[in-house]
Write the C-alpha cells for this entry.
Amino acid sequence: MAELAIETHGLVKTYGSTRAVDGVDLAIERGGVHGFLGPNGAGKTTVIRMLATLVRADAGTGSVLGYDIASQADEVRSRVSLTGQFASVDEDLSGLENLRLIAKLYGYSPKAATRRANELLEAFALTDARDRQVKKYSGGMRRRIDIAASIVVTPELLFLDEPTTGLDPRSRNEVWDIVRAMVDFGTTVMLTTQYLDEADALADRISVIDSGKIIAEGTATQLKASVGAGALHVRVMEREERDKAREILIRELGVEVELPTDPQALSAVIDDRTRVTRALSALDSEGVGLAQFSLGQPTLDEVFLSLTGQPAAETAGSETEEAA
Amino acid sequence: MSTETSQAESTPEPAAENTPAPQAHAITHALANTERPARPSALSTSVTFGWRALLKIKHVPEQLLDVTVFPVVMTLLFTYLFGGAIAGSVDNYIAYLAPGILVQSVLFITMYTGTTLRTDLDKGVFDRFRSLPIWRPSALVGMLLGDAVRFTVAAIVTSVVCLLIGWRPGGGFVGVVLGVALLLVFAFSLGWVWTFLSMLLRSPNAVMGVAMMVMMPLVFASNIFVDPSTMPGWLQAWVDVNPVSHLVTAVRALMDGMSPGADLTLALVWSAVLVAVFGTLTMWKYRDPS
C-alpha cells in the first residue's frame, strides 16, 4: 500500500481564456522515470508547476508523495526538487556560490555547505568551472549545475522540465546518464519532453499531453505500437519509376504508400519491419534504382497524427534511426 | 520529406573543450551522502538571501554606480541650483537641504529593488527559491536587507558631499547615524511597495514607470527643498500628510541634535503600515505570480 508518487484528479489551470491544463488525472507510481510527452504549449510545464507548488490549481486536487499540493505545500516542498526549463540558478553567481546558497537555505552550516557544494561540483564534472559565473557556462554545464542544485538535499521526487531542450547530442547523453544514475539510486523522476526518443530512452511509462489533456498513457512500446512500427522513406533514382516502385511496395508491404510532394519520394507507415528487407530486394530485382532509403522510428508527429488526427503544434524534428 | 537525418546517437561528438564527463558513481555517491539538516530559521534564510545580494554586487559592481554617482549629482545640482534663490547662499541652504537630499537620494534608489526583482522573477531562479521548504518571504526580505547595504553606501556618499559643501550637522556623528538609521527603516518598508509592483507588472520598465509616478509627489511635494509655509493651502495639506515629510522632519531633527518628537513616531508608524499592507499584498501575489 505504498502511496503513489503523484496522484491528481481533474487538475485545471486557466490563463485568461485559455485552459492551459484542462482536467488532468494522473496516477504515477514511485520509482523510475515517468515521461510527460507533448509539444510546446501542451500544458506540460503548467502541470509540473502545479505539482511543485509554484502555481495553484484553479480546480481539481493533487497529491505528491501523499501530501496535498494545496494544503500541505510545505511538506511537498521539502521532498521534491525542480529543475526548470530555464536555468533555475542565479546566472550572476558562480557555480560554487549557487550550490552553497542552496545548501545554506536547506540549513547547512557554512562549512558543511562548502563541502557539499564541492562534492557535487566534482560529481558533475564542474570543479574547473566552480568560480566562473554561471552565465559563462555552456548549455550542457548549465543543465548540470541546475540538476546539481536540485539534489543538494536528495529529493524523493525530482521534476525535470525539458532537461535536454537545446543541448548538443553529447550533453544530452550526459544528462541522460545523470537521470539514469538518479533512478538507480531510487529517486522518482518526472520528466517532460518534446522528444519521443528521449521518453523512449528514459521513461518507464509515458503520458502524452496535448492542449491541456492527457490523450494517451502507456509504455513506450505500447505508444509506438499504436502508430505502427515506423515509417519507410524511399527516394527513387528516376522520377518516372515512382509509380512502378509504389506498386511493388504496396504488394510487398501490404500497406498504403504515400506520394509526398518530392517527385522522387515515397513513404509508408509500416507495422511489420521484417517485410521491409523483402520489399527493398523486390525493388532491386525489378530494376528500380534507389537514391536513398531509410527506416525511421515513429516521430512525435506521427504519434500525434495517430492519436489526435492532427500534427503536433510544433514538431520536434524527426528522429530517424537505422538510416541506410 | 525524405529526412535523412542520420545523426546516429552513438557517434561521439568531437569534444569542443576537454571537459570531463560527469560520473555516474560519483553522482550516486553524492545522492547517498546527503544530509537533512534541521530546517533553518526565518532569520537565517533571510540573511542567506542578503548574502546573495552582496555576492551579486561583487560580481556586478556596476550596481554601485547608481548609489554613488546619482546622489553626488543630485546633491550638487540642487544645492547650487536653489541655494542662492531660496536661502540667500549655498552655506545657509545646505544646513536645511542636507537631511532632505539624503532622504531623497536613498528613496529614489529604493525603486531599483522593484526592477531588479522583476528581472529576477523572469529568470526562473525564483522558481527554485519558491520551491524550497523555507520561510516564504525570506527571499524578498533578504533582497531588501542586501539593498540596505546599497542604501547605506548612498547615505555615506551623500553625507560626505554635503560635508564638503559646508554642512555642519548640529547632532554630530551620532545624530547623523541615528537619522540614517531611521531612513533605512523607512526605505526597507517602502521597498515592499516596489516588490508588490514587480509582482503585478510584467516588465522592469513598467515597474520603473509606475514607481516614478508614485515617487514624484512623495519626494517633490514634501518639505525636502523648501519650507511648506509659502505653498498654497491644498499643497500644504498634502505635504502635511505626506509620510516623506514626517520622515524628513524627524531625520532633520535627529541630525540637528533636536528631539524629533511626534514626527519620529509617525515615520515609524508609516513604516509599519507599509510593511503590513504591501508586505501582505506582495506575499499574496508571490504565491502565484503572473
User: Anything to note?
Assistant: Residues 6-224 of chain A form a domain with the Rossmann fold fold (CATH 3.40.50.300). Chain A touches chain B through 79 residues (CB under 8 Å). The two ends of chain A are 49 Å apart (CA to CA).
